[in-house]
Write a structure and sequence with these properties.
Largest sheet: none
CATH class: Mainly Alpha
Mean pLDDT: 88
Number of helices: 11
Strand content: under 5%
Low-confidence stretches: none
CATH topology: MetI-like fold
Helix content: over 70%
CATH architecture: Orthogonal Bundle
Number of strands: 0
Number of domains: 1
């Protein structure tokens, strides 16, 4: 049901937008008298090893996690779509060259490639967004090339060429509108992958830097050390990452089912 993933995604978006109003405490405030306390009425999700309220940190951490994810998704979709559409429409030597570059990038593990680029660029929001976007772009480019090849072989494209329409006009008026549904599906799937990448990189210390909370850096360091005595320190940020990624992936699947005519009327 499309309503379920949409409701889940909307809940996380609202959580990030209204984070300051939903926090119970300052997410950076330390309380030496409430260190590693389990969930209670005062602290619904417990506290961490410094006495900071985990609910407030999870809510506040949704902002950088979703913000980096959405921004990186935008970079990946714009770059990957442009590359895939141009490659699929023009074909020839340019298509061959671009696809060999994409092949090389797809053979490299995404996390390893991201770590290598961040080692050169350094940690920071801008670097994080650019690196995640670049890592996700090749996969999007490959899918968009396939979609463009299907559209380019259609009769109305040949008719447009026959009446003298320029390539720029054909791309803008005929190709792009007919691959927009594919772009929307890829965007929804990409933001889930981007959130996961941000969490992984922050977990490794190359993403959002402490004390600023993000779901990834809340899972690292002391959260692992205290896991046996205070598992809530890692469980709740992990649940937030899992539900956010699940929501966006399910939304992408729902959009695919809606936009793909071959799936209409199927169960």
């Amino acid at each position: 049901m499309p309503r379920v993933p949409f409701a889940l995604v909307l809940a996380f978006v609202l959580l990030a937008v209204f984070a300051p109003a939903l926090t119970l405490y300052d997410p950076l405030a330390q309380d030496p008298t409430a260190q590693a306390k389990p969930p209670s009425g005062l602290h619904p999700l417990g506290t961490d090893y410094l006495g900071r309220d985990i609910w407030s940190r999870v809510v506040t951490g949704s902002r950088p996690s979703l913000g980096v994810g959405a921004s990186a998704m935008a970079v990946a979709v714009v770059l990957g779509s442009a590359l895939g559409i141009v490659s699929g429409y023009l074909g020839g030597p340019l298509d061959l060259f671009l696809q060999r570059v994409v092949d090389v990038l797809l053979t490299l593990p995404g996390l390893v490639l991201a770590l290598a680029m961040l080692a050169v660029l350094g940690a920071g929001f801008a670097s994080l967004i650019a690196v995640i976007g670049l890592v996700l772009a090749p996969g999007i480019a490959r899918v968009m090339r396939s979609a463009t090849l299907v559209v380019s072989a259609s009769g109305y494209i040949e008719a447009a060429r026959a009446v003298g329409a320029r390539d720029r006009r054909i791309l803008a008026r005929h190709v792009l509108p007919n691959v927009t549904a594919t772009i929307l599906v890829l965007a929804s799937l990409a933001i889930g992958n981007a959130i996961l990448f941000e969490a992984a990189l922050s977990f490794l210390g190359l993403g959002v830097q402490p004390p600023e909370p993000s779901w990834g850096n809340m899972l690292s360091g002391p959260a692992r050390q205290y896991f046996e005595v205070a598992p809530w320190m890692a469980v709740f940020p992990g649940v937030a990452v899992s539900l956010a990624v699940l929501g966006f992936n399910l939304l992408g699947d729902s959009l695919r089912d809606i936009f793909d005519p071959r799936l209409q009327g199927t169960t």
